C-alpha cells in the first residue's frame, strides 16, 4: 500500500513540532507511531529527513530513553525493511516460542517485568506475526496479550501504548483517521 503524501507531510511536521524546544511531546510521537502503517511511517521518515536534514532515528535517539527509544527505533527499522515475498514461514511455531518469552519476561523478575525483553520480542512482529502472537498467548494462558501488557505495564503509559500498538498494528491500507 502506498503512503498518503498529505498525511506524510502533516505527520512529519507533527514530529518536528513535538521535538522542538525543551522536552518532547511524547503523545504526538505515540499517535504517529501507533496509527501509521509501515509504508506511512517509512514515508514520514523520508519527509522528516527532507524537511530537517535529520533522520527519524537521530530524532528518536536524542529525544527518548530506553525502553521507549528502543521500541520506537525498532518500529522505524521494521517499517523501512522490505518484507520478503510470500511471508508465511512457521508463523505459528515462532509465535509459540515468542509467547513463552513474553510470559517469562512478565513473570520472571521479582517485582517488575523485563521491559527490554518485551520490547525485543514484540517490536519485531509484522501484522501476521502479531495476530499469531495474540492468538497463541490467549490459547496458552487464558487471557489476552493486551490485558497481560496492561497489567504488567500499568503506570508506564507510553511504553504500554506503544507495545499495544505493536500487537495490533494498523492495516497496511494506511490511516483512516479523520483528525
Write the layout of secondary structure elements.
Layout: H1 5-19, H2 26-35, H3 38-52, H4 56-63, H5 68-80, H6 91-107, H7 115-122, H8 127-141, H9 145-152, H10 157-167
Helix pairs in contact: 1-2, 1-3, 2-10, 3-5, 4-5, 5-10, 6-7, 6-8, 9-10
Structure characterization notes:
This protein has about 180 residues and is mainly alpha-helical. Helix content is about 65%, strand content about 0%. The longest helix is centred in the middle third of the chain and has 17 residues.
Gist of the model:
With 179 residues, the chain is mainly alpha-helical. Helix content is 67%, strand content 0%. The protein is built from 10 helices and no strands.
- Segments where pLDDT lies below 50 for 5+ residues? 84-89, 174-179
Rg estimate, integer Å: 16 Å
Mean pLDDT: 80
Number of separate helices? 10
Q: Give the N-to-C terminal Cα separation.
A: 21 Å
Order of helices and strands: HHHHHHHHHH
What is the makeup of the main sheet?
Answer: none
Number of strands: 0
Estimate what percentage of residues fall within beta strands: under 5%
- Helix share, percent: 55-70%
Silhouette: globular
Structural class: mainly alpha
Amino acid at each position: 500500500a502506498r503512503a498518503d503524501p498529505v498525511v506524510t507531510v502533516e505527520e512529519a511536521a507533527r514530529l518536528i513540532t513535538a521535538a522542538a524546544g525543551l522536552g518532547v511531546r511524547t503523545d504526538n510521537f505515540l499517535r504517529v507511531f501507533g496509527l501509521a502503517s509501515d509504508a506511512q511511517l517509512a514515508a514520514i521518515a523520508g519527509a522528516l529527513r527532507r524537511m530537517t536534514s535529520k533522520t527519524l532515528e537521530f530524532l528518536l535517539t536524542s529525544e527518548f530513553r530506553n525502553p521507549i527509544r528502543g521500541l520506537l527505533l525498532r518500529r522505524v527499522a521494521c517499517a523501512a525493511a522490505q518484507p520478503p515475498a510470500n511471508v508465511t514461514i512457521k508463523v505459528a511455531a515462532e509465535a509459540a516460542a515468542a509467547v513463552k518469552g513474553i510470559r517469562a519476561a512478565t513473570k520472571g523478575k521479582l517485582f517488575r517485568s523485563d521491559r527490554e525483553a518485551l520490547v525485543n520480542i514484540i517490536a519485531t512482529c509484522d501484522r501476521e506475526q502479531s495476530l499469531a502472537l495474540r492468538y497463541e498467548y490467549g490459547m496458552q494462558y487464558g487471557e489476552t496479550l493486551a490485558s497481560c501488557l496492561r497489567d504488567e505495564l500499568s503506570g508506564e503509559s507510553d511504553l504500554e501504548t506503544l507495545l499495544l500498538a505493536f500487537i495490533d498494528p494498523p492495516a497496511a491500507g494506511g490511516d483512516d483517521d479523520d483528525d
